[in-house]
From TrEMBL:
Protein name: DNA nickase
Cited Gene3D superfamilies: nmb1532 protein domain like
Domain of life: Bacteria
Organism: Rubripirellula reticaptiva
Domain annotation Hemerythrin-like: ranges: 11-111
InterPro entries: Hemerythrin-like
Length: 164
């Protein structure tokens, strides 16, 4: 059995678990109106998700695009951007923020979409299962290096930070 493949699967799944917990906790804070916690949790999620999102967008999605097409993967990138917008907005909230009910509902929808995306995207790892053992080792090394570099998700798409 290919150890690199097993380790890559484990690392990928562990990332998805951490992001799912982050989305869930952030969604709960938004639903309860605890925007001080929501801001902190959004910052935590931005940090936790960054290396994994970078791996997906630079390593996984190009492989997915070969089999599922550009339209499918464009939707995946768009989903990331939509979810990130909510994360960026939430982490910039002041402690005494009083967002409108409409905005809170939008954040809830975006974060629920993040939960759904994390669940669905986990199955896309199978696209890397056909790679050679050496390629899988290289992919694992890339994911581990991205984790070590620790770029925030918002750093991958700085234009979203500058939006109003």
């Amino acid at each position: 059995m290919n150890t690199a493949w097993n380790e890559l699967q484990t690392a990928f799944v562990n990332d998805h678990i951490a992001m799912t917990h982050g989305y869930r906790d952030l969604l709960e804070a938004v639903q309860s109106g605890d925007f001080e916690s929501a801001s902190r949790l959004a910052s935590d999620l931005d940090k936790v998700a960054g290396p994994h999102i970078e791996f997906e967008e630079t390593c996984l999605y190009p492989e997915v695009e070969e089999s599922r097409g550009e339209t499918y993967t464009a939707r995946l990138y768009d989903e990331h951007a939509e979810i990130l917008r909510a994360v960026v907005e939430l982490q910039s909230l002041s402690d005494d923020a009083k967002p409108t009910k409409r905005r809170v509902k939008q954040w809830q929808e975006q974060l629920q979409h993040g939960l759904d995306h994390a669940a669905a995207c986990g199955s896309l790892l199978s696209h890397l299962g056909t790679q050679s053992a050496d390629q899988q080792q290289s992919l694992l090394n890339t994911l581990l290096l991205l984790r070590q570099q620790g770029r925030r998700w918002s750093e991958l798409h700085p234009s979203l930070k500058d939006r109003d």
